[in-house]
Every structure is written in C-alpha cells, then in structure tokens.
Amino acid sequence: MMNAYKMELENVSKTYLGTDGNPVNALGPIHMQIPNHRFISIVGPSGCGKSTLFNIISGLVETSDGAIYVGGNRVDGLTGITGYMLQKDLLLPWRTILDNVILGLEIEGIPKKEAKAKALPLLYKYGLKGFEHHYPAQLSGGMRQRAALLRTIMYDREIILLDEPFGALDAQTRAMMQEWLLDLWDDFQKTILFVTHDMEEAIYLSDEVYIMTSRPGTIKRHLMIDLPRPRKPQIITSPQFIELKEEALRTLSEETMRAYQQESAG
Amino acid sequence: MSHEAEAVSSRGGGISAGIKTPRPKSNWLKHEMAVPKPWAVNVGRFALFIIMLLLWEIGARSGLINSFFWSQPVEIARTWWIGVQTGAVWQDTLYTFRSTVIGFVLGTLGGTLLGLSFWWSKYYARISEPFIIMFEAMPKLALAPIIVLVFGIGIGSKIAMGFAITVVITTLTTYNGVRSVDKDLVRMVYSLGASRMQVFRKVIVPTAIPAMISALRINIGLALTGAIVGEYIGSERGLGRMIFYAGQTYEISLIWANIFNLSILSMLLYVLIGKLESLLLKGFMHQK
C-alpha cells in the first residue's frame, strides 16, 4: 500500500487514572497527516500535552487509544522510529562531543571507528570544528544544542521530533540556530516536527503550523504557511507574515485564556 | 593615621614607583587573600611535632606525666627500634596492610555490584531496602567475635571484617548514585533504540562512578578499623594484635610503638587511595 503521507496519527490520546480514581483525559484525540520532508510546528498553551504527544510518537509513552502509522506500518509503542531531541541537550557529560554525537550509531552496533569517521565531517561542516574532543561542560548552550541536534541527525531517522530545542537559548543564539536548523533540514531532507512556544519561530521555520487547544490538547487549527523558501530573517516584517502571525496569535490567545480560566476555576 | 599617610604618598608615586614602594593593604588582602608558603607550612608542622615530643619527654622525666601509662618518646623509640631489628614491625604492618587492602577491595567491589544490581529490578530493590538499612544502622564491629569464630584467627576473619564494614555503605552510596541519574538522559538513550543493557552500560554505570569514587576514601579507613578490631578479638599477627597483647601485659611503650606504626600505615593507605582517586577522576570524569 502506498501512502501519501509520511506519518499519520489516528485518534491518538492519553488518559490516565486521576487521584479520585476517575479517568482523566490529558491529550487528544489527535489526528495528523504529515507529508514527507515537511517542516511542521506544533504550538499550544502550556500544559496542553505537546510533550506527551512527542513522547507517544517516539514510543516512550503508550497511547491510550488510536494508532500511529509510518509508511503504512503501525509503530506506536516502538522506540527507534524517530529521532527525538529535547530542550535540555542531554549530552552525556563524561563523553566528548564526538563520542556524544555518535551515541545513536553506537547503540545500533556500528563500530566506533566507523561512526566517528562518519561524524567528523558533519561536526566540521556544522560549526563544531575544533570542539570534537571537548566535553559538554566546556561548551556554550548554543554549541551544546548543536551537538545534540547533530546527534539526532546522525541517528538518521527520517522523522525528527524537536521539543523546544531552542527554548533555553538567548535571542541572538536562537536566531542563529534557526538558520542553522533550516540548513540542516535542507541538506538532510528530513521530516521535522517542531514544538515551540514562539509563534514567530513556528511560522518562520515551518510549512505547516498546528495550534493546539488547552488541556486536553486537540488540534484547534491547521495553518498552511506558504511563504516562499528559502526564507530570509527579514521576512518576519513582510505583510503576509504579519497577517499569518496575527491570525495564529488570535487563535492561540483564545486557548491561553481558556487554559487560564480553567486553572483559576479549578 | 599612619596608614592613611602611607596610602596618600604611594598614590602619588606613579606606576613605576608604585611597584617598589611598600603599599598599604586592606585587611581583606592581608588576611583572606594571603597564601602561606608551602615550605613554611612544612617547617611549622615539623616543629609542632618536635615540640609535642619534647613536652611529652620533659613531662615524663619531671614526673608531670605518669610515664607508667603514657611512657615516654625515648622509651617508645627504643622499643620500636627493637621491633625494626627483629623484623616484627614489618611483619605486623604487612599483615594488617594485606588484610585491610583485601577486605577493602572485596567490600568495595561487592558493594558496587550490589548497588548497581538494584537498578535492574525495582521489586528486588524494594524488598532488599529495609534489610540493607538495618544492616547499615547496626555497628558492624559488634560482629567481630562471631566473625572471628566463623573465619578463624587467620587473615580470613580480618578480611571478612573489612568486607562487612565496607560493603553496605558502598552499596548504599552506589545505589544513591544510580538513583540520582537524570531520567531524561535515560529516556533519550532509550529513544535511540537502546536495550536495557546499553542504558546500564552507557548511562547508569558512568553516573554512579563519582559516588563510587567518593566511597573509596571512607572505605579504606573503615576496612583498617575492621582489620584492627578483628585482630583484637583473636589473631596470630598484626598491629592490632600487638597493641592488644601489649595492653594486656602492661608494655606501654610497645602499645605506642605499634600505634606509631599504625598511623604510618593509615597515612600510607590514604596517600595510595588519594592517588587512585585522582587517577579514576581523570580517567572517568576528566577532572584534574
């Protein structure tokens, strides 16, 4: 069976038993159809379950209902299908940058030497030349995120999940990292799912933006971003961009308000 | 007043003059930032040691200190020298050294393996927990008579003492190290498709290593205490046995001579552990 989509989420949701013994719906149901090689952002109010969604997609958490298909095969509950990166760089502090970057290959059983030979050109090309034998503690936050992202890229999965990867970086570093991420995406032709709080970042980077409702998070809005590529940073001042951003923010603020009211009421 | 005058005059001197003229120093610079010279520290330490010995000797000779209980440095040195000549000093020190080191190595390795093993099964860890804590709370030295009965008066019982006294604390330290692991780190490695064994080898063991290294220094002292107490209860050789024997026969100089040997031995052990520690820290943690 040929699939039009790279990945499909069908009715994915998360329910757990609350303290009073009743089931609590934390997420979903969520339906998503993700075409190949797309850059897709997910934005939503805090606590809406974006991270839970990523944990389900990456196989670290079981979905309570529904299924996930990649290339027509059911994959929910399986790890190793996607590359996953979090806001924390999660580099192993006792390994050098080079040894950190090859971790995924090492786990797959590829000999260290071979893995290193594969990784070194990437480190050189993507701004970590001269740091390959440093330890994470010796690097700045931006550099560490680069290494973490390269580790995810080296792990060579077609779908990559990025959970607020630049959330902890300062504005300048973040802008630099966005350019860098777009370069990587271009070079490696991955399908990227990107969670962020920053609507501007979402629109600037993505082909499609999903806006989620407050908890239990479902898809409220699916925006197509047909800004031409390659995009220049100046594009954020163009009328088309501003129009998209205004619309997206209006949708989001409705949900943020609702989340706030829910919290105050509860 | 004079300080202020000095400060004013030195400020007027310009840059080149400022280096040579004595400049005023704040109390912060004078007391908190001052680093004593290493040679001066060593000289001071040696002098203090000599002064203490001298006071002891003078006190004993003048009758201020009862030399029946406290002996006196010259007597102790004479007794010690006899021991050196007969070779007893070396034999006893080596005996205690050997039982301490073997007990230390077995206890540390055993505790490390036990502590790491708890990661594999929460069920097994939860069941074992109260027993481990109970055994940790109990003074292990109280076991000495039984251990000597079971393992005999040879080196086996001293090793068993060293083992018993170090194994539990190492288990707890290692297990705490294992539990302090960053859950996200574990999650990340699983997300790369790792097996449990891979997570264990690549994340859990390295995380626990600093805790294990910090246990070394405590363990060597504990193992030595265990060995000495084992020797008190019953032994053919060893510094502890000599101290106990000398105490029963009122040979106070012999007690002190062996305590001297014991302190040399414990210093040596601490130096060795310090070397091992920095080697391990460099090897695993990339610290200087």
From TrEMBL, chain B:
SUPFAM superfamilies the record matches: MetI-like (SSF161098)
PANTHER family found in the cross-reference section: ABC TRANSPORTER PERMEASE, ALKANE SULFONATE ABC TRANSPORTER-RELATED, MEMBRANE SUBUNIT
Chief site of localization: membrane
Keyword Acetylation: no
Membrane spanning stretches: 39-59, 101-120, 132-153, 159-178, 253-273
Family matches, as InterPro entries: MetI-like (IPR000515), MetI-like_sf (IPR035906)
Top-level taxon of origin: Bacteria
Region Disordered, residue ranges: 1-22
Organism, as annotated: Paenibacillus vini
Subcellular location(s) per record: Cell membrane
Membrane topology: Multi-pass membrane protein
Similarity remark: Belongs to the binding-protein-dependent transport system permease family.
Keyword Phosphoprotein assigned: no
Protein name (database record): ABC transporter permease
Keyword annotations from UniProtKB, A to Z: Cell membrane, Membrane, Transmembrane, Transmembrane helix, Transport
UniProt xrefs under Pfam families: BPD_transp_1
Residue stretches making up the ABC transmembrane type-1 domain: 89-277
